[in-house]
Specification:
75% of the residues lie in helices and 1% in strands. The chain is mainly alpha-helical. It has a two-stranded antiparallel ribbon. A hairpin with a 2-residue loop joins strand 1 and strand 2. The chain is globular and about 65 Å long. The two termini are 34 Å apart.
Length: 347
């Protein structure tokens, strides 16, 4: 990589990290109970043992550390997981239009959650819905992968079409379950289909954190193989890449990252599609920087989106998944037109 590219990429990571800190302070300060940003920053510094600045009163401390910061922490983990999973998906599919939802992980997680809501089965108490969503997301990815294999190998186009078919099937089952649900169940189903961070707690952060941090930490190990996959399956094999094994492990990583995120937050669409493109515009196509950059950008942008979702129509809250889809859909359309113009048409 040229020195100028390293400088530009380094500046991008520093800018994203600084943006995340600023948005974290803003998220802590904003809400029905207003806390000055200086006191939010002072509270953080006191908690890490620096003892600088003023802190809020006891009620402000409770609002910060029991309500707002758990939400920010969960949003960082979900955004980082979805951004990282998006970069991995686009790399392993060698397609800039790929995202985790294309293999059905989001719809499968929603189906698992809605099944528990409508049937009332709760073998694990309050964690039954989250557990069912996680299992549903993983099961859908494995089903897509298994159905796409033929003669010991997996073709990308077959996997994409299988994912589309399975997404349609899960969507139909979700529609049926919604039709037979009562009013209380409909409110819970809305959470899973529109996405929200409103139910964040430190316990949920502790559940998601190990999966998200391990997944994001392991993902850069596949950077070189994903760079070679961009040349095509044949050239990548000639250069020593075990294409099938790489694709299988990366899909497992994507499934774990996305299923754990969606199981806690509901469906937050287009983050995995849009974020890697934004990072690629600055850092270039190399996955060594694209993967960590997408994770950091996903965390930063989703914290900003969640802050907007809970303040722009206060005291009501705009569903987070609706907000990301409103921004992501035009971007997807623009990217589609851009690719078509660059290639001179699809035929």
């Amino acid at each position: 990589m040229a020195p100028t590219s390293w400088v530009r990429s380094g500046l991008l990571l520093v800018a994203l990290a600084a943006g995340l800190v600023v948005l974290t302070v803003a998220a802590g300060a904003s809400g029905a109970f207003r806390i000055p940003p200086s006191e939010v920053l002072g509270s953080i510094l006191h908690r890490i043992g620096l003892g600088w600045g003023s802190t809020p009163d006891a009620l402000g401390e409770d609002v910060l550390w029991q309500i707002r910061f758990p939400r920010v922490a969960l949003t960082v983990l979900v955004g980082g997981s979805l951004g990282c999973a998006g970069a991995l998906m686009q790399g392993t599919f060698s397609n800039p239009l790929a995202e985790p939802g294309i293999v059905g992980v989001s719809s499968g997680a929603a189906l698992g959650a809605v099944l528990v809501i409508v049937t009332g089965l709760a073998p694990f108490g309050t964690w039954s819905i989250t557990g069912a969503a996680f299992v549903g997301g993983l099961a859908t990815v494995f089903a897509v992968y298994a159905a796409s294999r033929a003669d010991g190998r997996t073709e990308v186009i077959t996997m994409v079409l299988t994912g589309i078919a399975l997404n349609a099937l899960t969507g139909a089952v979700l529609g049926l379950l919604t039709y037979y649900s009562d009013d209380a169940q409909l409110r819970s189903i809305t959470f899973w289909t529109l996405g929200s961070m409103a139910q964040a707690t430190w316990t949920k952060v502790a559940v998601v954190a190990p999966l998200a941090l391990v997944g994001i930490g392991v993902a850069p190990l596949f950077a070189r193989r994903l760079d070679l996959l961009a040349l095509g399956d044949g050239p990548a094999r000639h250069l020593g890449v075990d294409v099938e094994r790489t694709r299988r492990v990366v899909l497992l990583l994507v499934a774990v990252l996305t299923a754990s995120a969606v199981a806690i937050s509901g469906q937050v669409l287009f983050v995995g599609l849009v974020i890697p493109h934004l990072v690629r515009m600055v850092a270039g196509p190399g996955h060594r920087l694209l993967i960590p950059g997408s994770a950091l950008a996903g965390a930063t942008i989703l914290v900003g989106a969640d802050l907007a979702a809970r303040t722009m129509a206060s005291p009501a809250e705009v569903p987070l998944g609706v907000l990301t889809a409103l921004v992501g859909s035009p971007f997807f359309f623009w990217q589609l037109r851009r690719m078509r113009a660059r290639q001179g048409g699809w035929a």
